[in-house]
Fold:
Amino acid sequence: MKVAIIPARGSSKRIPRKNVKDFCGKPMIAYSIEAALESKIFDRVIVSTDDAEIASVARAYGAEVPFMRPLELSDDLTTTIPVIAHAIKELQKEGAVKVACCIYATAPFIQIEYLKEAYLALLAHKNHYAFAVTSFPFPIQRAIKFTKDDGIEMFYPEYLNTRSQDLQEAYHDAGQFYFGTAQAWLDEEPIFSKHSAAVTLPRHLVQDIDTPEDFKRAELMYKALEQT
Structure:
């Protein structure tokens, strides 16, 4: 069985009720649910939540909520892997899970084509995980920081005079989805490792949504994309 698991706890702090907050006409979580369903990859699309309102919205958009997430896995310190492992264990009471894809509830830019590409990448070389990345818009080797006395210094001063085009391009997690074998999730293997594959997203499809400023920027990006 292949499952999509969308973790969505109720107690988001910086953007209250973020997972069900209206985003360009729909609850934020709706975009993730719809993409998972429309991809036709998954046998089941479930939402792992501790919150009754989120569960109700999730069901309204076609996801299952076959269990409620325990409180010990719903605090600010709980990371993604234990939440997905818990969901897999619950689902395996009903049948064997082979592949699980964690899709974040705050991923309105998620695209079906990249979900499919990542799924094939997971299978291609018997990878343990496959996830989305995007490139940094500026060479990380030229990054600067403030010092304690409000001065400036480079993180990597050895690259001060290196041309940008001669520096190696760097990538970061796109924060949208993570395919993994059920066993990798259950063993709590790290996602960023040599056993993982990555698919590259264009930067205009990637935006973290952690603060009100992020949320506003994401809405503007989404509306601009709709007009293209």
Notes: The chain has one domain: 2-133+172-226. The chain has six helices and ten strands. The beta strands are 2-7, 22-23, 26-27, 44-48, 99-103, 129-135, 144-146, 152-154, 171-181, 196-200. The radius of gyration is 19 Å.
